[in-house]
Structure formats: structure tokens, C-alpha cells
């Protein structure tokens, strides 16, 4: 027996051991559970339920990415802005000749002093105190919070009319610190003062959004304990969504704020971002270049969802609990259903391996082992 023949027999023996190991243990790695393993798992108590997507339940699973927002809270009239603590006000007063109260000729030269000239009294700028007051000479403390500039003018004029000759008063808002909204974008915070004309949601965009990113931008508006998300591209198309902003509102600018993860036997295992217009199962599969022809089991396309809604869980009694949806793409109506099934934020789209995938892997390993051996034997002969 030649040395090469002995080596060949040793390799064949090793190959036999490899085959035995592959047949009796988890020798070959996989990308995840198979279709049959996931289906079997639902028979185990406390395991995540598996719900097949079919023509009977697809209607309840295709209602859109999010429920239509209740616009009752947001569809309000233009806000009637009032002064508040922190606002900066400047008061000017004068009286008709002959000036009785403001007729003296003492003139203040700095902006922090009181200037009297020709019957006109210009007060320095004042910040409305935390208690809500400003101080006016000859009048005293005047409440400013919760009032308009016109109200303050009337109050001061009423006091001066008793000691001045036909007094007139103008109150001017120098700095609007109370009636404003906060905008959070790209890790920075901005303040947008509101004016009597009334600012709508679309007025936020020029301050924070590149026009090229409008289609991928959403605005998350918080008011008190309520929130609403509006797609920026919808503001010019739907007037109801372009509502008035109110003091204290917070607007967070989001770029593609939602994602799903795609795993298993797809042509690309990746994270897919999407916006408030939603993402269908068909679009998600297309964005990852479809199912892998050599690995995927078209009967085992799964969507793992961490929180089932009441409508979704009605068949499996799993409200608020994880749920798994399965779709068999070999069925004739499957293409219609993937177009209607809407994915949600943080869903996992998983494509299981076909049953023959492990066999293909194993045969490729066998080929890599036997090919060099066969070539060696041919050379020795």
C-alpha cells in the first residue's frame, strides 16, 4: 500500500466522522430558527404567540402606521397672547401742553435713567418680575402678567389722568421671553418668540430644516401632557395639520424617526429607517433587495413585534405583549397582503432559512474536503 493511498483512507475516515457529527449535532451554524421551529414554539406555555397573516385578519393589521391624530386639542383659534414674567417692557408717557407733571427739563442721558423732555417721560426698559409687576413713577407697581400692552396703557393712563394734563401712554414689548416655544433640532435648543399675528407649525421649518430633507422630516409637538407627530411634507397639503402654536409648546425635529431591523435569509441584514407615512412589508423586503434565492424559506417570513395592540391581539389574548406574525409568500394572495401589512417602529422582519440550507452548507464543506483529496489521488496515479 502506497503512502498516498494511506493518506487517502485517513481522510475518508475523518470525513466519515464529520458526517456523523453533522447528522447528530448542531454542527452547522444558522442565521436563526427555522419556520417549523418557530411554529412549534407557540405550543409551549408562555411562549410568544404566532399569528398567521391571512385574508380574514389583514384588514385589522393594515390600518396605517399610526392612528389618525385627534386634532380637537390642536385645532384651536389663534392664541390671545398675554404678558408674563421675564418679558422686557419699555414705557413712554407724555402730556398735552401746558405740561403740568412732565414739564421740567431734567433729561437722563443713559438708557438706564429716566428721561424727561418737552413733556415726555421715557422709562428705561423693565423686566416683568417673577411676581408679575413693573414699576411706573407717579403710579407705583403695575401688574403685567396675564395682561396685554393695551391693558397696561389704560391702567397707567387712568392713574396719571388725576395729576397730569391729558396724559398719553405707550407700552412697547422689547423682548418676548414669555410667549415663546422651544425647538429641539440636531442636539440644540432654539427659542421662537410668538407674535400677535399667530405662528403656525409650518413657521418652524425655515429655522431648523434643510429644504432637501423635508420629505424625511417629522415634527413632534408636545403641549402639556399631549403629543402629536406631523410629517413636514404634509403641512402644505393638509391645512388641518398646520395648526397655531401656543406658548410653552415644544417642537422636536426628527429625521426618519422610526426603524425596523431585517434579519435572516434576506439579501441584506440591516436597519431600515422610515417616517410617519409608514412602511409596508412589501417596501421593507424591497429595500433589502428581496429574499435570498439560495437560503430563504418563502413560507417563513416573520414579523416580531414587542407590543401587540388591542386589535392585533384579539385573536391571541396578548394585549401589550410580544407577538409574532407569519406570512406564507407562496400563497397566491400573499403579494396583496404584503402591500397592506404595515410595519411599526422597532419591528423585526425575519426570513427563516429553507430546510435544505444546512444541507447545502454541508455539501459545500464536503466538496472543499474531497476536491483536494481527489486532485492529489489523480496526481499520484
Provide a descriptive summary of the structure in words.
By secondary structure, the protein is α+β, with helices and mostly antiparallel strands. The chain has 3 domains: 112 residues, Outer membrane lipoprotein wza domain like (Outer membrane lipoprotein wza fold like, Roll); 88 residues, wza like domain (wza like fold, 2-Layer Sandwich), CATH 3.30.1950; 76 residues, Outer membrane lipoprotein wza fold like. It contains 8 helices and 20 strands. The strands form 5 sheets. A 6-stranded mixed β-sheet has the order 1-18-17-20-14-15, with helices on both faces. Strands 2, 3, 4, 5 and 8 form a 5-stranded antiparallel β-sheet that branches. Strands 10-9-13-11-12 form a 5-stranded mixed β-sheet, with no helix packed on it. It is rod-shaped and about 105 Å long. About 6% of the residues have low confidence.
Text of the CATH class of the largest domain: Alpha Beta
Distance between the termini: 13 Å
How big a fraction of the residues is strand? 25-35%
Order of helices and strands: HHEEEEEEEHEEEHEEEEEEHEHEHEEH
Total helices: the number is 8
Main sheet strand line-up: 1-18-17-20-14-15
How many separate domains? 3
Fraction of residues in helix: 10-25%
**Mean pLDDT, all residues:** 78
Shape, principal axes of CA atoms = rod-shaped
Task: Assign the CATH topology of the largest domain.
Answer: Outer membrane lipoprotein wza fold like
Examine the secondary-structure arrangement and name the CATH architecture of the largest domain: Roll
Name the quaternary structure.
single chain
* Major sheet characteristics: 6 strands, mixed
| Total count of strands | 20
CATH superfamily of the largest domain: Outer membrane lipoprotein wza domain like
Structural class by secondary-structure content: alpha+beta
Cα-based radius of gyration, to the nearest Å: 37 Å
pLDDT below 50 for ≥5 consecutive residues: which ranges? 22-28, 64-68, 105-113
